[in-house]
Amino acid sequence: MIAKSWGELTTSELYSIMKLRTDVFFVEQKVDETELDDRDQEDATRHYWIADDLGVAAYIRVLHNETAEYLDGHCVIGRVVVRDDRRGQGLAQVIMKRIVDDYNGQAMMLHAQDYIVPLYAKFGFESFGELYEEATIMHQSMYRPAQ
Fold it and tell me: What is the CATH number of domain 2-144?
């Protein structure tokens, strides 16, 4: 498990992260939202991943918003992605546990693809608001109160 800020990433790590995100979000899921949104480079953004011999196998990004999007949820989990050959092995759960531990009980939020809501519920996230469609995929906003 690796956790780094933008300035700590090597070019090889960055390439492997971006390749995985592009392969899954653009090629597989046909998401046409801007992938490179400049948030990756912010000082407060943390990049978490698990790598194997083929590169990054699973990745999650954590942002910090100055203004909370919901209640006191300034920390926002996003870009959750697992390479197709490593799905179902619990890699996202391993990273999520590390993130929850690293953020020491701070309030957090995320926008989950509907099918994966039960994973986040295991970590104390609760659904709020209505299901909505983003990039032809149903999503649910979720919030984890400060512990």
Answer: 3.40.630.30
